[in-house]
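Justification of resources, computational component.

The compute hours requested in this renewal are based largely on the per-chain cost of generating structure records like the one below. Each record pairs the submitted sequence with a full C-alpha cell output. That output is archived, and it is also reused by downstream analysis tasks.
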Amino acid sequence: MIRRESEVTAFLQEAGLAQYAKALEHHGIEMQTLMSMQYEQMRDLGMRSGHALKLRRRLQLANGSAAKGDVVGALSAVQLSWLRQEVSLQQFLAAVPEELDSPALKALFGHFLTMVGRVVAGIHELQRLSPELQELGLLQRLYGIKEQHFQLAGKILVELMACELTPEAQSAWVMVSGFMVAELLAGFHGNGEISQREFRLSLMSDCSTAVGDMDADSRTTHDGDDVDLARTP
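The structure output for this chain reads:
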C-alpha cells in the first residue's frame, strides 16, 4: 500500500523546507498545529533560524487571518522604523548595564548594529546573511565575549526599536532580533556554516602575518643597506 503524503510534508516541500518533515511528523505536528506554531517553537524543534523565519512567513501567508499585505507591511514597517530612528552606538551602549561595559563589548555592539542595517536592507532574503553573522559570532570567541552578550544585544535592539509600533511590526522586530542572535550563536559555538577548519585557517593566516611583520621589524635601514639587528653586536 502506497503511503499517502501528509499535508504537513506537502506544505514543507512547497516551501522548500522538506528536510524538516520527518522531525515534525516525529513530534506529531499536524497541519492545524503547524499553522499556529510560533518562531520560538520552530527553533525549539531544531529548525535553523532563517528557515524558521521563512516557514513562519509562509504560514502567515497561507493563514486566512493574515493577508499577504499584512506580512509585507510588517516587514516594511521594520525597514521604515529603522530609517526613521536608526539606533546609534551611543544609544545602544547607554542601555548596557555599567558592570558589563568593556572595549570588547563595545566592538561587538558596533559590529552588531552594522549588521542590523544589512539585515534590514535584505529583510526579504535573510538567509543570505547567515554566513556573515556566523563568522562575526565565531570571531568573538577571541575577545572574551560570552553567549549572554549576544542575547543582550538582541534584547536591547528590540527594546529600542519596538516601541510605538504596531503589534505586527513589533513581532517582526522580535523575529529579526531572534534571527540575528541565533546565527551569531551558531557561529560562536562553531556549529554554523562557518566551520572550525575555516576558523583555524583564519588564525593561522593572522599568525603568519604577525610573524612577517616581526621579521620586517627586526631589520632596519642604514645608509640604504638592511642591517640584521639580531646579528648586530
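The radius of gyration is 23 Å. Residues 167-188 form the longest helix (22 residues).
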